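hey so u asked for the seq, here:
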Amino acid sequence: MRRRDALAAIAALGLPVRAAAGAEFADETWTDPFRRRDIPVRLRWPAGEDACGLVIHSHGLGGSRSGGAVWGEAWQAGGLAVLHLQHPGSDSGVWQSGGLRGARRAASAEQYLARIADARFVLDEIERRRGTGGSWARVRPEAIGFSGHSFGARLTQALAGERPARARRAERVGEVADPRIRAFIAFSSGFNERDGLDDATLARRFGAITRPFLAMTGSDDEAMLVGDASNAARRAVYRGLPPGQKAQLVLDGADHATFGGGTGLAWAEGRSGRRGERAVALEAQHRRVIAAISVDWWRWRLLGDAAAQARLRAPADLAAADLWEQG
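ran it, structure tokens below
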């Protein structure tokens, strides 16, 4: 599913397609002066000059700002601005510096903390740019969402209020929940299964996440690279969230790469033999469902769109074995 399919998915919701004319996106590099760190970003603006919500998206381990292109195009077409965030040190550079071993080394506590700092800097920079006028003045500060795939989902969980189970990690991370973010989507949510899957452990870990949180996974979405997030752990995130503003999508036959939305990961791009035939065969259908549900989630939770909320009571095009639940 590429651009025209993403736009078709939005049109099928009954929404006007608001894809920007001309360039679909603009690439920039933002510099955090305190850390002397250059952060590549990709910006997508919806057509028009009206005020809009904004979604920040974080790629998976070994990815880049090109990750999540399918989702970004759909959200842009649905009337949202999108900022794809790239994380030096756990981005596509790891493949050139060490291959699979390099990727495993990049899945570290240090890179996790660097990603948290990246997100905070970007939120600060958005606030600063809003004050300068121009296109940034369109962004509604009360309508900012955050999402991520895989390692980016871990970042999403942290910003939402996840409390790591291990004492050392919890002490280093501290309180990182950012109040400037209104809603979240974790594509391939998860955590280290060794920390425990019992209800009490899950409640301690995820019980502080009280803002709208949508967890997505698939029946074949298993551990990747670092090997610490089983399918059971991915599905347990929803169980640990407190009731009221949570939702979960589990797509039958979907694997880890399904949720990348054009991830750029070396093991996912051009190496379809490493994926199950069923996941590959169902990918176009799964992407249409993910695009439609995620657009409605953002439009409801960020913009208060009542029609989007109504559609999410029974999303269209789910297969009989797919699971959609809200609680």
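The chain has one domain: 3-326. The first strand starts at residue 26 and ends at 32.
lmk if thats what u needed
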